[in-house]
Amino acid sequence: MKNYKELIYDQSHVNGQWVSGGSGTFKVVNPADGTEVATVHDADVALVEQAIQAAAVAFGPWKALAAKERSVIMYRWYDLLISHKEALATIMTLECGKPLVESRGEVDYAASFIQWFAEEAKRVYGDVIPGFTADRRVLVVKQPIGVVGVITPWNFPLAMITRKLGPALAVGCTAVVRPSEETPLSALAMVALAEQAGFPKGVINVVVGTQAAATGKLLCESPLVSKISFTGSTRVGQILSSQSAFMLKKLSLELGGNAPFIVFEDADINAAVRGAIAGKFRFSGQTCVCVNRILVHEKIYDQFAERFVQAVSELKVGNGMEPGVNFGPLINKKAMDRMELLVSDALAKGGELLFGGKKQDNYFFLPTVIGNAQANMDFAREEIFGPIAPLFKFKTDEEAIQMANDTIYGLASYFYTQDLTRTWKVSEALEYGIVGVNEGLISSESVPFGGVKYSGKGREGSKYGIDDYTEIKYVCMGNIN
Ligand code: SIN
Question: How many Å lie between the centroid of ligand 1 and the Cα of residue 288?
Fold first, then answer.
């Protein structure tokens, strides 16, 4: 078993080799205290090109393996991820500030996608369709799409990669992974364990560096890459989409959100408070499914607000490596400064500061509650991606649904009620890919995760997650007399 220092690598991993790339180095900084975690070699586009070539060469032999053979290697990788949980979680906390308890949870979450798709690898079933004339027979087979460009964010340094690699590898695709430059170390540790698990060279390539735009463009425009799978902002998703348009490349896009959290008058208020804390403050509010707007029925608004503020005041803010801490720093100064702007905009427009609202040392921003939130405040439209919880009031179910849907985004939504009819009606009316009913945590490898509208396209995880990495081929056999 390796300790975390033995799993820190400072180079890209291409075609089974550790390689530098020619663009100098960059630093990975711990957002909790500003210390340097590592200096990493910066991959240039020539190295990305090499990675694409390697993945293209590896594709033929990898897809030719029996599904069971790929599955066995994936299981070995799953075991290695789990047995190195503590080391991987430590690296993650050091590079992104996530509290250690959440980082451990993320290693489990990341590994679960590899386990799930190791199982699914053996179940990529086709079909037999009755022939459309008496002498024809029709088969349907699913085949791997090819080399996949995997572009991932810093907020889930492992799980967003494995959520894409799981289905890709299971069906026989190979990959070039570009993790965020804020969190390259988790990705490199992960690929080192993949190598140990026995993946052939070139099947998983990881390029780390600061040249995000050039790398994305190359992946989108390379004729050797058949698909792009991206998690990140809507703006970058749109750029990748337009760069991929000429080649009509298949895309999976998991983009921004603006999740409403509706508390109806018949809700169990304590359960709603627990759900709102979990759904809002996971990784200090820095997830795409984090609660963005809390909509509370006017009759229970004061009660909810009081209990919610009390629960927020109990969060333990600090360096994620310290025991008991469940609320860490934001990723960087830009994120922290943006929180300050969102708060001052809301206060200038009549918002009430019920808790927090301040920057602290390094990149900490206190968990914050704003009462009397209104539709003209910036956070009503924008994805907050940080620890601000605005409380809005509503009077009727129709008004709550209208407010909830009044956004360009459509990823996650949540509501609390004890009424069965309302449960059905509201679930059906919400224009979102994900609905949590009396539940603030909705993520799992076994569910189809993804959004509608400007939140993207495609679904990740579950039995549906495999489809985005395959092409359907229909085989018509004629002259069968
Ligand atoms: C995300 O923030 O992009 C993913 C969140 C999750 O998988 O729960």
Answer: 5
Number of compact structural domains in the chain:
2
DSSP 435-462: EEES-S----TTS-B--EETTEE--BST
Amino acid, single-letter form, for residue 76: R
Please enumerate in sequence order all residues whose Cβ is within 8 A of that of 444, keeping only pairs 6 or more positions apart, or say none.
112, 461
Residue ranges around ligand 1 (CB below 6 Å): 155-156, 231, 254, 287-289, 443, 449
Burial of 123 by CB count in 10 Å (0-12 exposed, 13-18 middle, 19+ buried)? exposed
**Is this structure's pTM higher than 0.90?**
yes
In a domain, 186, yes or no: yes
Structure tokens at 254: 């998991």
pLDDT in the model for residue 278: 98
Query: pLDDT below 50 — which residues of the chain?
Result: none
Both structure tokens of 165: 């690699």
- Chain position carrying tokens 């991606």: 385
- Ligand 1 centroid to residue 280 C-alpha, Å: 12
Whether 288 is catalytic: yes
| 237 within some domain | yes
Asked whether residue 113 is domain-assigned, the answer is yes
Residue 476's DSSP bridge partners are 138
The CA distances from residue 156 to 95, 159, 231, 347, in Å, are 11, 5, 10, 31
Chain centroid to Cα 166, Å, comes to: 14
Alpha carbon distance 244, 235 (integer Å):
14
| Same domain for 299 and 433 | yes
Q: How far is CA 251 from CA 19, 42, 118, 204, 231, in A?
A: 28, 26, 22, 19, 11
Helices (H), 84-158: 85-96, 100-120
